Prior knowledge:
CATH class of the largest domain: Alpha Beta
Largest sheet: 5 strands, parallel
CATH architecture of the largest domain: 3-Layer(aba) Sandwich
Number of strands: 5
Helix content: 40-55%
CATH superfamily of the largest domain: Response regulator
Structural class: alpha/beta
Strand order of the largest sheet: 2-1-3-4-5
Shape: globular
Radius of gyration: 17 Å
Amino acid sequence: xxxxxxLADDEPLLxxxxxxxxxxxxxxxxxxEAADGAAxxxxxxxxxxxxxxxxxxxxxxxxxxxxxxxxxxVPDPPRILxxxxxxxxxxxxxxxxxxxxxxxxxxxxxxxxxxxxxxVAEGESLLFPASVRALAxxxxxxxxxxxxxxxxxxxxxxxxxxxxARGHAxxxxxxxLFVGTETVKTHVGSLLAKLGARDRTQAVIAAYESGFxxxx
Length: 216
């Protein structure tokens, strides 16, 4: 299956470089480009990409607002990969909280860029490194704890969420818990629904902000 990608960055050289790297790979196609966040939403509606690789800081509309707009208005929205210079940037955390699925450093090597696009497209693992975990954990508060408690996750759903927070994919979780992959998928779907989370990233953010899991 070919993964279609929309690139959004106000630096033409970066867009050109990303396009060259991604289109050199089999199974990845760049279907469009945008120089600003305001241009992203119309292109998403028209092109229906699988992944949007988007700079977090752009003029007119930044990646955070563009992410919110996509998640709010697009049925079955694409996966969103935030492009950033600094991995411990609050902008990155806010973009993930708004609905982005992972982030990519601008200094990443070509192989890392390709890997990030594929991981985000598959949707069964996380790009959620220690720096962002620390940011999320630092926002733990009583309201988040109360919201998490109301979700009333079962013991097995809690086990799955802990492993998700470590970045494990479904197959890895299945091996760890000695269950089938389909069973893991069922637990993931259930805990997402209980937490009101769009995807794994949102569930893991909720786990950190509630103090259910902690950085490190």
